[in-house]
Amino acid sequence: MASNPAKVVNASPTSVTVTFTEVPDVKFSSVAVLDTTGRALQRGKATANGRALSVAVGELPRGVYLVTWRVLSRVDGHVTGGTFAFGVGVSPSTATVPPSSRIAPGPSGLSIAGRWVFYAGLMVLLGAGWLGAAALERAPAGLRWLGWVLAIAGAIAIGEAQRRSASIPLAQVWSSSIGRAFAWRVLPLAVGGLVLMFVRGTLGGWLITAAAAGSMLAHVAYGHAGAARPAGIAIGQQWAHFLGAGVWLGGLIALLAGMRGLEAEARARAVRAYSAVALWAAACVGTDSSTGWPGDDASATLAVQPALIPSPADGSALPINRIRAVTTRVPDQSVLDVTVQDVSPTAASWEMVLSVPASEDETVVIVFLYLRYPF
Which domains does the chain have, with CATH numbers? Predict the structure, then answer.
């Protein structure tokens, strides 16, 4: 976050501008300018210009002023808030300013539960869709419905948790970024529900897979990846991770559920079909490539998504000595040295540095992470 004016100005500013890392939803965001008695001095509502919010102020006499802000992100629907002080002709440290009554709310229990249910539902739906279409003689219809119901329930819980956090009335939620994100998450699932009811066979399986993948893409686009620069690359990377987890873990669940009652030859065929895809799906959860030349060693930085690895209940950072990584290099299957750079559960990804021995071929690295329990 950046601000204008700076901490000390010689003359009264005509406006106060706060610039954020994500585009704010101006209709549900506010900026206030207070004097040391708590009296509001801003004129009118905040106006938006890209990632900045501005409010006009009148002539401010010499003194210290407090700016409080609370914004709803137009990108991911998260609410943040805070304060900063500036002085006109004096340093803010020379006077006492009242503390802000606004804080950035943490994730609620409903939000956490909703995300886990949503993720689980989409992965089950996608896994049951693609494996039923590609390998199983009898598509696991019950499993597909289970995944669909979980995904819908999770999407509703996420949207409601965000609405409560932003204190938006139900009548206004559809005009907010929260309502738009919810609509885009649910629209592919609504189409998927119609497919489940009316389309059977291989076509139905691939359409269900597409519906789950579409909802995954919408969720990623309305998350932190949507605020990254360039957004397209960040969204594509996170979508690939999400798809990989769905194909891998969701496919495994569908495989175990769908093999009941199959003949030995049909079971073997399903296992072979799953295995051929699962390796590459697992690689999408965390992969990178590096090219080495004879006599030269190379290194690669790998961004690993921590979404499927639980963090401590109190939200603290995962101790670095709890993280273990096993790596395999394709095609020679050698094990590479891995250094974990950052294991904060709030980070968008964990940065890992791979030491890649010299090679004439492009190297594909598959990384498997696990934790030592208990904490």
Answer: 2-94 (2.60.40.1220), 109-285 (no CATH), 288-371 (no CATH)
